Amino acid sequence: MPFVNVKITRGPEVTREKKAALVAGITDLLVDVLAKTPANIHIVIDEVDEDNWGASGLLVTELKKQRA
Question: Could you tell me the pTM of the whole model?
Fold first, then answer.
């Protein structure tokens, strides 16, 4: 029973439709690569506030400011 946990930053671009596409794509990948049964695949999407995610020594909010 595969369990996949996807962590992404929360934002307006993360729509219900895009999350559904992620779930479908991950499921298809596990079926294609590992021959898993779709009914046994569980996927959780955790949305994390950008102020609670760090990379390169900075919060994501600060990284985005630098890139703008």
Answer: 0.86
